[in-house]
Amino acid sequence: MRTPAFAVILVLAAFQSAASTAQPPAIESGAGSCLVGSYDMADGSTLDIGPGAGDAFRWRRPDGQTSALARQRDGSWRSTLGWTDRPDGHELSVENCESGAIRFDGVAGQRQPLVQVDTRFQGSGVMLRGRLTLPPGQARVPLVVLVHGAERSSALESYSLQRELASQGIGVFAYDKRGTGKSEGRYTQDYLTLATDAIHALHEARRLAGKRAGRIGYQGGSQGGWVAPLAARIEPVDFVIVSFGLAVSPIEEDREAIAFDISRAGFGPDVQRKARTVADASAAIISSNFTEGFDRLDALKQEHGQAPWFRFVRGNFTSYLLTTPEADARRDFPALLEGIPAHYDPMPVLANLDVPQLWILGGQDRDAPPFETLHRLQELQHAGRPVVTAVFPLADHGMYEFETRPDGERISTRQPQGYLEMMADFIKNGRIATRYGNATLSPGPR
């Protein structure tokens, strides 16, 4: 599922698989199901199975392939490609769910004996719920703390990386951010508060891992790309990975998203300037906490609303202001956007951050376009900061490749080959190899 860095609080896209009309015998879904886990397959490959939408599950391969699994009347499970509803020919059968024996496309598999420890720990004034997942054995392993995006869902329920990275020999700590899942407190998007919670999570991960704890750092996706570097600046760690995050403010993110959509639609500089006035009007409304500026946006809608380019003005929050009545926006949006530092500038933190960083970006990211971020990261590289960037050219937000429907909408199909491998290498060694799928690397492996 794609998770926009900023607009997720306004809308969550739910990709639902087509459900069978027959009602097969039930297997419990969700993170507590005996089917959830990472599996060693008889052909030497690995397979992860996690909760999906509704009663479905989702399988993932380390190379980025993924599909939804729907239960059939005969008790088998058949999959549909990515988040489409198109069958892809893969089939799962459960030999013994409790003991972790399965067959996938006829190949036997056995659930890995990953070590999982659930915990409650003190965050910044609230109690948070977390889970440490370790590879089996007693060997010392690197640890990574997964830092949330803006989603309101439970990380303990939905984050497949806690198993996928553990199956690569890495300890993983996931936790429900405040106000989500089983964690206490009020949901917030205040980056300093969230960074402080992340530091507490890191302490708890290290405590639980004990003698097995090796190098330790953060992986932050989307909004986590603002939070994880801030946490690392407050208390240094061994590494930071930012996935589809930004080195610009949320307001600048909205402007760049609009510019990217206008450019992809084939319009030139004159239209770009006009679209920028719409983004600026939206920014003024946001900056006033939805108390003023609506008249300016209404005037621009009257002036340009029938122009062929206007329907491509989307952005991460501008489209909602364009389509929501003023009275509703004044009433509802302040609570929805509460805590977001819309003008937050991450560069002072990044310019003074000596922690090795890997930034992984999508070249087709409509929600968080990477272009100004890459420019700023390049400047940090030239200034001697330990920053490595990787761009997967065909990936949208969430690091998902996609198909484009006839109506122009995208539907996710898979993650890029090399994405998981790259993160695992950087967590283990602080270095990356020379090639990961079709990613462009800068300044390259170290």
Q: What's the N-to-C terminus distance?
A: 32 Å
Please give the order of strands in the largest beta sheet: 9-10-12-11-13-14-15-16-19
Largest beta-sheet characterization? 9 strands, mixed
CATH class descriptor of the largest domain = Alpha Beta
CATH architecture of the largest domain: 3-Layer(aba) Sandwich
GO molecular function, one term: carboxylic ester hydrolase activity
Signal peptide: 1-22
Keywords: Hydrolase, Signal
Pfam families: Abhydrolase_6 (PF12697)
What report would you give on this structure?
It holds the Pfam family Abhydrolase_6. Residues 1-22 form the signal peptide. One of its GO terms (molecular function) is carboxylic ester hydrolase activity. Keywords: Hydrolase, Signal. With 446 residues, the chain is α+β, with helices and mostly antiparallel strands. It contains 12 helices and 19 strands. The strands form 3 sheets. It has a 9-stranded mixed beta sheet, with helices on both faces. An 8-stranded antiparallel barrel has the order 1-2-3-4-5-6-7-8. It has a two-stranded antiparallel ribbon with strand order 17-18. Helix 3 (191-209) packs across helix 4, helix 5 (250-264) runs antiparallel to helix 6 and helix 6 (269-287) packs antiparallel against helix 7 (294-304).
